[in-house]
Amino acid sequence: MEAGKTIKIGFLGMGTVAQGVWEHLSKNPNVLGAKVELSKVCVRDTKKKRDVSIPPEKLTTNPRDVTSDPSIDIVCELMGGTTRAFDLSMEALRAGKVVVSANKAAICERGDLLFEEAKKMGSALFFEASVAGGVPVVKILREGLVANRFPLIYGILNGTCNYILTRMERENASYESILADARRLGYVEADESLDIDGWDSAHKIAVLAYLAHGVWIKPGEQMPVMGIREVKLEDMLWAKDFDYRIKLVASVRKNPRTNSIFASVYPALVPLDDVIANVNGVYNAVSIDGDVVGRTVHIGRGAGRDATASAVIADIADAIKFLKGGVCVRRENKKLKLAKASEVTSAFYVRLGVKDRAGVLAKVAECFAKHGISIERLKQLARSDGLSSKAWLILTTHETSEQNMSDVCSDLKKLSVVAERPFVLRIFKTPKI
Amino acid sequence: MEAGKTIKIGFLGMGTVAQGVWEHLSKNPNVLGAKVELSKVCVRDTKKKRDVSIPPEKLTTNPRDVTSDPSIDIVCELMGGTTRAFDLSMEALRAGKVVVSANKAAICERGDLLFEEAKKMGSALFFEASVAGGVPVVKILREGLVANRFPLIYGILNGTCNYILTRMERENASYESILADARRLGYVEADESLDIDGWDSAHKIAVLAYLAHGVWIKPGEQMPVMGIREVKLEDMLWAKDFDYRIKLVASVRKNPRTNSIFASVYPALVPLDDVIANVNGVYNAVSIDGDVVGRTVHIGRGAGRDATASAVIADIADAIKFLKGGVCVRRENKKLKLAKASEVTSAFYVRLGVKDRAGVLAKVAECFAKHGISIERLKQLARSDGLSSKAWLILTTHETSEQNMSDVCSDLKKLSVVAERPFVLRIFKTPKI
After folding, report:
1. Which residues of B402-427 are buried (b: 16+ CB within 10 A; e: fewer)?
2. In this predicted model, what pLDDT tens digit does every residue of B181-204 receive, in sequence order?
3. Closest Cα to residue A162, out of A248, A260, A60?
4. Model pTM greater than 0.80?
5. How far apart, in Å, do the first and last CA atoms of chain A sit?
6. Can you tell me the ipTM of this complex?
7. Residue of A98, A280, A405, A428 to mutate when probing chain B, most B C-beta within 10 A
8. Quick one: CA dihedral B134, B135, B139, B142, positive or negative?
9. CA of A416, closest CA in chain B: separation in Å?
């Protein structure tokens, strides 16, 4: 492919995820390291109202306008389903296009044919978005951990079931009541059974099993699949008594002795001290045991518009690299500056060695007040190191700047009642997973 | 590069990690998707005893035999240090070779020059092994999450410090006593200050900051760096009182408002319900907030021969792809077979709806015994659903086969005392992180 050429991308389907891709690529086209044009979009209804504004001349109801347009380099299949979507992906591959797909069902059912066609045409199929949207697990397995064999891969691959189980436990609520909520919130697929009965997880673990072991396992016939319908709140509480948490676990294991492989999806009791047991809500997690690297665990949002869009965009970037046959390197950013201590804020933990005498607390508190730092919690403790004439003052502050903190420390040092240099730690608060 | 050509790899240094790379590549050369030859190794002492047997004619004490040999395509710099290692990497790049490096210190100090030289020569430098060995975080940031900007990246990047903090808390032991142990176990670098005082973490977060933001931040002058020397056991216990755990946290944040960036390394209190707070021992973890994908967390061994070797081999695979300008796809594996139910074992949780009458327990226990399944724990509970004539029997089993379990279930169903189909869950026990 000639250098500097603008790469044209066509879309099959413009649902939630595709709109996410469109929006983010329109905002930051440079992340792809190439000039790209979002050139054609096949939809069922061109008049339908969408969150993103697409020039009407780019819309079509005829998929051939995408799969057969010789100017289009990359086709993103984001329409879902296993029949029409599969046929159109095959068409695009036959036409020599690189295909990006988020369609786990189609890939699980007939991925072998898709990959075969891609190989035959010297093209490629990228499908990061088909498994655990926010977790780049396809790339991790295929490239990052390429040195490894994989005796065990297991994890949480369906955000809807994990959301339901998490809320049942946290709210002591029944399966039915939370499911009703999940439906209201639009967390459950139109075909509920895909989520609830474990088929979505099964499609995903089948894709991971193919990546790890190069074989296709058919959910159902070759893989036991059980969902969460029959899990009672009582089961979760009793499991907790035994130090377990119930999660819908998809797994694939290989027995090196018998050289055999076993994949399954079922609600399982996971020990509370396993990281996977502590992945809650809509988050997905994949735990990968590699024979060289040992265990790695990867956690992220499993679904949703933006998490999935992030994966599709990564695939488009790889598709472009594939077309160019090069490796993209991150660009420099000269505009960034380093933050000043006055701009950086944190909450702090302070251990203060003080003389054990009246008025200490007042002097210390006054010092913090002077610098506008409000104390969150405070306790005074006798010293264990036998310095009975001294005491420990332990306190935590509310959010303040690094500058304020270093100022208060230099003032504290000067106080006659303070016996030692203050010992300061940051409290690292971030949004919860 | 002509197709089918054997790719020659040279090594600078043959220490622990390099020997790991050598061993695993000798065992599974096909993981690289190309014919490779481990052709030359520069060492200080050719006579030294090593775990891997290297043909003497491949050993040299003259680095030029590696950096200037026109037949060598890829040079792995695994000697460490920042002066000689840097000079030799530059030499290799100038000679047009692709360089793979695990040397975070050299990359952090003068990576800008290395990348510049690589770019100038149309070559490349790969450095996955330089940050969190077992976690393919370089690839995740650069490729898997390419669609994202990164407001916050934080985590545990030094296994030695995490090991010491973990044992202090678990064993109520002092910093000094555990440090002494870590020394005995060879977990501490020759230059202890690199680990203990946070410089190793600083080098690594600097590399991640470059990947995420394209700027180089100098530890010390531009980045506050504090290690764990002054952390007392008491601090850890008091932090726990406040629902925090003390970890050595390396982080880089970007403030989009001021377009400024702040990197730091310090012991920090992390909320106990943050996944990062529950990453213990020698494990590393990186939490990445992407503006598109949301939060992803990646956990794995941070150092050690094999985890680092896994990363170096992934880099060699990428270097080969770079040389070929193609994309490697995983090979099929026809030899694998699917496991039979009799080959797959697990521990089980069973909820049994039984009639509330004498002799039930005996009949049920007998049924399990008949199939050689030993019961681990058992409790009988009154039913909450008002069926007072019935009771719940909740039990967990020791490891047994899927076959045995389905056999016992079909027998249980036939028992007159069993009122409902047994409800079975697997207990998912795996090695702990």
Report:
1. bebbebbbebbeebebbbeebbbbbb
2. 999 988 888 889 999 999 999 999
3. A248
4. yes
5. 43
6. 0.87
7. A428
8. negative
9. 23
